[in-house]
Write a structure and sequence with these properties.
With 219 residues, the protein is mainly alpha-helical. The chain is built from 9 helices and no strands. It has helices spanning 8-16, 19-30, 41-61, 73-96, 98-103, 115-122, 132-153, 163-180, 186-199. Helix 4 packs across helix 6.
């Protein structure tokens, strides 16, 4: 036996110390110094958002093996989608408006811009071709994701979910990836999920007012 043990407190301090890596990211965007990065930091964030979306769909396939207590697979699915939306918006904000991103991040607290801050930033950045209806739908669905995330992460007090929520969430996420990350393969996955949900929705049922985000699934 050795008398040397791991210092857990020191390890926590090392994990919380973002300063060195943060300086490298700052230099990447402020000075164009790519340093040790083999890909832009925002592209790394985009891949993480894609992985979270994939994980959210995989969780639905493993619903019988869920270990989340009384949290339903759909709740966990929506929780992961909301986290993915936040990460994706951070990626876009980092690429398009680094100063805004940096002003709303905190190195000391290890905090990046929140989902609310991402929503506030992206709304004025939507395509000029969008009308009021399209802008409203994007804003509503991003707010809906935030509400579902808070519900899923805490009390789970609201069990009801309109199946159309999923269709619209997939559609807005597909728009964001299609518009800001043209080569993202997750757009096709989201479009397929949209089509699958559309098949289960009665054509005679009331629908939300139609809006065109450019990524509509087949009807």
């Amino acid at each position: 036996m050795t008398d040397e043990y791991l210092d857990l407190g020191q390890q926590i301090d090392e994990i919380e110390n973002f300063h060195e890596e943060w300086v490298k990211v700052e230099e990447y965007y402020d000075q164009g110094n790519h340093g040790e990065f083999d890909e832009p930091p925002h592209e790394r964030l985009c891949r993480r958002a894609e992985a979270l979306i994939e994980a959210s769909f995989e969780h639905l396939e493993l619903r019988d093996r869920s270990t989340m207590g009384d949290a339903s697979p759909n709740e966990v699915h929506l929780l992961l989608l909301a986290i993915a939306a936040e990460v994706a918006l951070n990626a876009v904000m980092m690429r398009e408006d680094w100063n805004y991103f940096a002003e709303r991040a905190s190195v000391e607290e290890g905090r990046t811009p929140s989902l609310d801050e991402g929503i506030s930033w992206v709304m004025p950045q939507l395509p000029e071709s969008f009308g009021n209806e399209e802008r409203a739908r994007v804003g509503q669905i991003l707010r809906l994701l935030r509400v579902h995330r808070n519900n899923s992460a805490h009390l789970g007090y609201q069990r009801f979910t309109n199946w159309r929520h999923y269709h619209e969430i997939y559609r807005v996420l597909a728009f964001l990836f299609d518009h800001y990350f043209e080569d993202s393969e997750i757009t096709g996955e989201l479009a397929q999920r949209m089509a699958d949900h559309r098949e289960h929705i009665s054509p005679d049922a009331l629908d939300y007012p139609p809006v065109d985000l450019g990524v509509d699934s087949p009807r």
